[in-house]
Design goal:
heterodimer, A: about 150 residues, mainly alpha, Helix Hairpins, 5 helices, B: about 90 residues, flat
Chain lengths: ~150, ~90
């Protein structure tokens, strides 16, 4: 039993990231409100960030900032100072920017949808879309006829 | 509660946990990722090559400068998309 507990404790960061990611995934696929879907996507992305940053961590390691440059205290470049892995930090810095960009576009789309349909609920929007569908197809047909007659 | 969604989520979580068994323990310095030549090279040489004390900054702006340039393209595209979506239509 202690063996299993040790395994769980040694990799507890993976359990946390899986739990967070699944909370976000559930919100994305089960919630009907579009804003809640976006929040779920953000939780999902944050779980990925947490996963990468926890992969980079070293027990007893410090932040990957060298202390002795640019007039700081001149510490000898001791080999026993352990830095955490800087490469995943850098990757995640890029991923955070992409996350913010996708969230911005998603929220702008949601504002347009709300202006058009007066609701954020997925079922209401789909029902409205279905009732509008004949008009939309008629409009598309008319437009293609116009295109052909212009040529 | 959506039963089907809950089922899918639980199955996916179990698959992720199963796949995570091969990942290294938390905080282990002896992983292939940390002992890789590239990581050690960055930690040892980024200061002398770029003159920045923060290794993450040196990585982002010096070694991966083109990636950061592409990142600004991502922000620009997202900003353009938001502007196009939210602009009032003139009719």
């Amino acid at each position: 039993m202690t063996g299993i507990l040790d395994v769980v404790y040694a990799e507890y960061n993976y359990w946390i990231y899986v739990a967070l990611m699944m909370i976000g995934f559930y919100a994305m696929i089960a919630k009907k409100n579009l804003i809640k879907k976006v929040i779920g996507a953000n939780i999902f992305q944050t779980a990925i960030f947490l996963f990468y940053v926890s992969l980079a961590d070293i027990t007893g390691g410090t932040a990957p900032i060298l202390p002795h440059v640019h007039g700081g205290e001149h510490v000898e470049h001791a080999a026993d100072v352990i830095y955490t892995n800087p490469v995943p930090h850098c990757l995640i810095l890029t991923a955070i920017v992409v996350s913010v960009s996708t969230t911005a576009v998603a929220l702008a789309l949601i504002i347009r949808i709300y202006n058009e349909y007066g609701s954020l609920d997925e079922d209401v929007i789909l029902a409205a879309r279905k009732s509008l569908q004949p008009e939309f197809s008629e409009y598309a047909r008319q437009k293609s006829v116009d295109e052909v007659s212009r040529q | 509660m959506n039963k089907l969604a809950l089922f899918v989520v639980v199955i996916t979580g179990l698959m992720l946990i199963y796949a995570g068994q091969d990942l290294p323990p938390f905080g282990d310095p002896d992983t292939a990722m940390y002992q890789h030549n590239m990581t050690q090279y960055f930690i040892e040489n980024s200061e002398s090559e770029s003159g920045v004390s923060n290794i993450v900054t040196a990585l982002l702006a010096n070694y991966r400068g083109y990636d950061t340039l592409g990142e600004t393209t991502v922000i620009f595209t997202a900003g353009m998309a938001v502007m196009l979506l939210l602009r009032r239509r003139e009719r």
